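Sample A.
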Amino acid sequence: MHVNLILRTNDAAMRTAFFRLAPRWRMTDPELSVGESHVLVVDLRTPVQDKWLNPGRGWIALGETPRHFHWAAEHGATLFLMWPCSPEQLDHALQATEQASPVNAVVAWPNNIEWDREGATIKKGQVLINLTPLESDIMALLWGRRMVYTSPAQILHHVWRGSIATEQNVYVYIRSLRRKLERMPDHPCILINRYGMGYRLAPVCQITEREELADAR
């Protein structure tokens, strides 16, 4: 059975990625499919028209910055995916939206990682990892500041909110998150840091000489 898919993008590479999901998913002309059952996917890196979005019907947002994520959340996206992402993640997202599953809180990362903000869980492949409330708060802060580094002092200020704690508490929780996120926690490539600047989440696992990856603090 074919499923109609409307993809709003000007990116040829993105269209190619979706075509690889054939034959289950059938790309359709947006202007000819208004009255048909379909799954809508919108690339937020290109201009978006509000008339495309139906509040009563789920849709998938694709983007690459925190601004894209916040826009998608404000406009009722069923699911937000970081781009680029794997064909497996695309197919999972399309199936979830088609079935109207309650996945609106899920942020899917490359490297086969999904973070559920509301459920405070991370899914790595088939493994479900639970986060503590403070770990989840740190993830939320680092996600919102994904394009910049966040210092231990900033994490302390925003997460502990004046509670009795020190930067040593931050280091303890960062190490705990790395044990849950990383294949090699002592050589992180997802929750990375740069000496003197702090931490940030890297959506694509790339180790470079410029990152101080060995410093587990």
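Sample B, a different protein:
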Amino acid sequence: MALDHDENLQPKGDWGMSALDLPSGGRRYLQIAQDLADQITAGAYQSGDRLPPERELSVQLEVSRTTVREALLALEIMRYVEIRVGAGVFVLPEHLRGQENGDLISPETVGPWEVLEARRMVEGHSAFAAAGRMTPAMLEQIGATITRMEAAINDIPKFDMADAEFHALIARAGGNALIESYVAHLWAMRGNSLWQTWYDQTRKVENRRRSISCHKAIYRALQRGQADVARTAMESHLDMLADRFFELNL
């Protein structure tokens, strides 16, 4: 699955992205979240009401479902709504809402879709570069992280640490300190509220197994020095995470 970063693209569409075609969806979802919050405050939606389905909002607002989804996550963080997976999005009572109603969420907060899109671009290249510059010692370290992930399949903190190290080591092996710092920065964004609100709902052991399988595919390409294959495998891994985002039935 390719990541849709523009309202004119569909979830299954091609990337068609260059270094100058940076994602803009993050700012749009904040605008939509604020508009929906204002409607709730004004009484357009009452406590307990179910908001229109994601697909319907997407058509009404003429934006992608991705943008709508991130807007709904922002509303949930501020306690305007409760997302009940498989049932819908419901308005919460006023006394439960965030105090700063006029400033829904900091513009600096980046949504999970933007993080995934940027990671696809940056980490895809780092895997490509690493395949041509990898030393045996680096390869051994990367392989060891997969072993630790398998051993920690039911221990999420340890699994996450090994997962993060896998990606950091590939970025380091690529030999570009600036790209390595970009990867670290993008991984740090996984700690923000929007990412956690989404990601915590997909914490399933089968998803961790899928992640290990993706890591093994990347590792095999690095082991064989296949740069194009390594990049494709990394991009596929991040597309798998994007699928998890879309599989949630809000």
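Observation for Sample B: The longest helix spans residues 112-133.
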